[in-house]
Amino acid sequence: MPTPAQLIHFLDQEDARTRDMIRRYGWAIEYVYGSQRSGPPFGYTVGLSGYEHPELILFGWGTANTGYMLNELGARIREGDRMYDGRIVAFEEGVHRALLIEVPDSATHLVAANRVYREPGEPPVPALQVVTDDRWGYFPWEQGYSEPDERQPVLGTRPGTAQ
């Protein structure tokens, strides 16, 4: 178990690495490996806030696919495209579409983004969840969705449900 001083040192080094990635590429991607205890794997951006844009989070994919999808959307944002709640996006490669859903509280999942961009006493950084369809084109809340429900927990309000 690390001491408090060791933890502070580790987080300082991680934040420096993240800021360096943002300076070089415009954003960084943090990937969290899932487990039965912690839930499915997910990745999220850190740095889109610098473009005055919500950060993005994606559940249920491996590192390569997560990186591909988040980097493609990040590149679109850097070029001036805006992502917003309810928008459906398609990807240049692959057959998947994604629906973007506003995340009501990013503090739990987007830890590094909140450490870098959240001001003390301010609300968590804005974020959008990238929810992908399955191979048949169904989203997790639609009848016929072929993936396990726990693969993509929906953090915001699912389409067609009350706010």
Report on the structure:
Pfam families: DUF4262. Residues 142-163 are annotated as: Disordered. This is DUF4262 domain-containing protein. The chain is of the alpha+beta class and 163 residues long. It has one domain. Helices cover 28% and strands 19% of the residues. It contains three helices and six strands. Strands 1-2-3-6-5-4 form a six-stranded mixed beta sheet, with helices on both faces. A hairpin with an 8-residue loop joins strand 2 (42-46) and strand 3. The longest helix is centred in the N-terminal third of the chain and has 22 residues, at 4-25. It is globular and about 50 Å long. The model has no long low-confidence stretch (mean pLDDT 91).
Order of helices and strands: HEEEHEEHE
Q: Which band does the percent of strand residues land in?
A: 15-25%
Q: What is the CA-CA span between the terminal residues?
A: 42 Å
Rg calc: 16 Å
Low-confidence stretches: none
Q: Work out the helicity level.
A: 25-40%
Shape field: globular
Tally of helical segments: 3
Write a concise keyword list for the protein shown above.
single chain, alpha+beta, 163 residues, 28% helix, six-stranded mixed beta sheet
